[in-house]
Specification:
By secondary structure, the protein is of the alpha/beta class. The protein has a single domain, classed as Alpha-Beta Complex (Spore Coat Polysaccharide Biosynthesis Protein SpsA, Chain A). The protein has a seven-stranded mixed beta sheet with strand order 3-2-1-4-7-5-8, sandwiched between helices. The protein is 37% helix and 17% strand. The termini are far apart.
Length: 286
């Protein structure tokens, strides 16, 4: 991978933002990176983060995964030379877990702080200073889970795609405002590290979707903001369009939510994951 023109500027930013190596920074930003397709994509959000001009210090951890055992990709050293921490793992797959969530947890466990800000490699942050400051301030004030609105970029110009997005946001609004269910998603939320790891190690978590309900059931403080300046945008690259696909998607999401939203230990036993990373509902056994 070629060095971007602003490589030296990025290196200086991440090294300075990390602060004194002998002290823990204020927060950790963890981002899972699929070595087979996201090593260049993640440069977008790294550039966004580098626009931060607030007072907080933080480390950035890239959980690079999905590469052959014993054949660590060159990008690992590339990002380290940029001043970013890297947690390389050939395969993060675990039975009955979303692979992106498993990758996220490797970054979380490598963090050196209690304040964890979680994004995806294909996310974009329009206002890094406002968002990062808000997340760190919330966690430092005792909030265990915080999240903000997630928008989209790069959507295909197709009516069925727009209908899917409207339905998606409408369902999230109902869950959050009417049903009181925190609607965390992988591309954008922040957590207390100790509590997150405890829930994960005790098998309460297998996907970003059930982080919110689990923290709520535990009686932990949760904050949400829909302010425009705190929006994070995620890629619309997976939305190909088509009304039949929309109907299948809606039915799939309904079944998936019914299985995953209930809280309890061993939640992973409710799901099965294939090697193609398609989420499927595990059939009941009698």
């Amino acid at each position: 991978m070629e060095k971007p023109d602003n490589f030296d500027k990025l290196r200086m930013f991440f090294e300075e933002r990390r602060g004194d190596p002998g002290k823990s920074p204020d927060a950790s930003i963890a981002i899972p990176v699929n070595a087979q397709g996201d090593c260049e994509t993640v440069l977008g959000i790294l550039n966004d983060i580098a626009q931060y001009n607030g007072d907080h210090t933080f480390e950035v951890i890239l959980a690079i995964n999905n590469f052959p055992e014993g054949n660590e990709p060159a990008e690992v050293e590339f990002f380290r030379s940029m001043g970013v921490s890297v947690q390389p793992t050939p395969s993060v797959r675990r039975p009955d877990e979303a692979v992106c969530f498993s990758a996220r947890m490797t970054g979380i466990k490598a963090a050196n702080t209690e304040c964890l800000l979680l994004f995806d490699a294909d996310c974009r942050i329009p206002n890094a200073t406002a968002l990062i400051d808000w997340y760190i301030d919330q966690l430092q004030q005792g909030t265990s889970l915080a999240y903000t609105h997630v928008g989209h970029y790069g959507l295909k110009k197709d009516v069925s795609v727009y209908a899917r997005i409207v339905t998606h946001h409408g369902a999230r609004w109902v869950k959050r405002e009417i049903l009181g269910i925190p609607t965390t998603r992988g591309g954008n939320y922040a957590v207390n590290r100790t509590k997150m790891v405890w829930f994960y190690d005790h098998k309460f978590l297998s996907d970003d979707l059930n982080v919110g309900p689990t923290f709520k059931a535990g009686g932990l403080p949760i904050r949400y903001s829909g302010k425009r300046k705190l929006v994070v945008n995620t890629s619309g690259r997976v939305f190909s369009g088509g009304w039949r696909k929309l109907v299948r998607y809606l039915l799939y999401r309904l079944r998936y939510n019914m299985k995953l939203l209930p809280v309890g230990p061993n939640v992973t036993s409710r799901l099965e994951r294939g090697e193609d990373n398609i989420r499927r509902v595990k059939p009941k056994t009698h």
